[in-house]
Specification:
Helices cover 63% and strands 0% of the residues. The longest helix has 27 residues, at 13-39. The chain has helices spanning 13-39, 42-45, 51-54, 60-64, 66-84, 91-100, 103-106, 112-121. It starts with 12 loop residues before the first helix and ends in a 10-residue tail after the last helix. Helix 1 (13-39) packs antiparallel against helix 5 (66-84).
Amino acid sequence: MNSAVRRPERPTRTSLGPRAYGEKLGLAFQIEDDILDIEGDAEKLGKSIGKDAASEKSTFPSLLGLEECRGLAAKLTEEAVDAVKPLDGHAFLVELARSLTGRTRKTQDVKFAYFREYLKRSEFMVNKTVT
């Protein structure tokens, strides 16, 4: 009986970059989404504002405060950018990541659906079941 057991491949620097990008950018996006739920413009964002507070939902700003959240979102975004810089063709991912931070004040007309759909379909999103 020939029973070959394959050891799982160890993650490489190249495979860890996309995972870190997805995790950090996803968290930064959630923080920005929580901020926009407090100070965004419903008409420009295309979604209602204040739902989290009305439902007494725990959010990053309710736990950390708005200024701390802005700093954390910026830090996470730069960490996401650093994670993909070693990869070929990273320019679009860098631009996408940086477009999310600060959109509260600069670009409220950004539609969330576009980013969510891109991140869902992106080959750089890593399935959480992969170790």
